[in-house]
Amino acid sequence: MFAGMDFGTTNSAVSLVDGQGRAAVVPMVFGQARAETMRSMLAFEDGHRDERRRPIARIGQEAIEAYLEGDGEARLLQSFKSYLTSRSFTSASIFNATYSLEDLIALVVRRLRETAEVQAGGKIERLVAGRPVCFVAEDGRAEDDFAVGRLREAFAKAGIADLAFEYEPIAAAYYYEQGLDHDQTVLVADFGGGTSDFCLVRLGPGRAGLDRPEEAIIGTNGVGIAGDAFDRRIVEHGIADFFGKKANYRSDGKTLPVPAWIFGKFERWHHIGFLNAPPTLRMLRDIQRFADAPDRIENLLTLIEHNLGYHLYRAVEKVKLDLSRAGESVFRFDFDPIDITRTVTRAEFEGWIEPELTEIETCVEGLLEKTGIPAHKVDRVFMTGGSSLVPAVRAIFSRRFGEDRISAGGEFVSVATGLAYRAREVFGG
Question: What pTM was computed for the model?
């Protein structure tokens, strides 16, 4: 049984190839519900510990439910894949227990592996896992070797003894190829939560005749921008003012702005929990007493103290999804005393994400230039991943290649499915 695993920033999935050579994602079961993917989330509760007195991790949908039902007392973690390039993130202390980043990733990977083993009817100790084309740190430095090394260690901790990596857009290419009856030169655009990755590849029946399947790959490129960055822009431009971003306060006879670093954390919802520290809360209470918008500072304090970061994330994500289908959406956030309603238009959103759109377009152009493949020689553009549904993202490719050459599909499962097909090539001989 050949297995492929897509450990993603936001969602994860695992896929198996059956005896007839067909790959399919393994369903994730939560009570009576079934899904193709599992949220890459963990939740820890102080009152639930194992025999070693370490807090027990809830994973995926179970983590979300523990958080929502725990009156804000559960510690919820997401997007920890984005820390793979961070040399300063070595471990986290959770209810007095220490977990390395590799430990946290291993918890998610192990759950995916065990779920797949139930369906496979046996142990899975080797697989092909996805990785971005480029692991880039926040300061712009390339950190491929460092990040891949950490990811490999995490998979080993999860019981994967034999591991191969494949670029995520190439995996998506293998997914797309299953429906081809003729050869094509394809640009695959894979938009995840943390990265946007691209590859030019020759696909179709002719690829089977190559000595090595990877010879079909013409070139790859990637940029550390995707769905999470779009969410941050909505928070930065459309939401943060309601939480005091433009507020000022008086101190020693001077008028000062609320410290900008507060909103650097605020714009990444999974960082909001880091603000829930006594020194930070005391500082914000002091600011509130002398602020020109004390009610907005109270909103911020409520968000922090009641651990409402995930609720904020869901409200923001809803706006983004709505704007993929309609010209406007209403952001609604109501947790007493917070009561915010704000209409966001697609035009506003597209203006906010213009820098990211430019970087994505520049990355695609760089791939074409590097490979020497002009746009008119690209037979098909295959777009996948959640942010491929954003109209402004699709428009980049429509302008460059023509709408008639764009295909899309498998937004959340194409990578995992393609990784399983790649596993058949790597381990099948």
Answer: 0.88
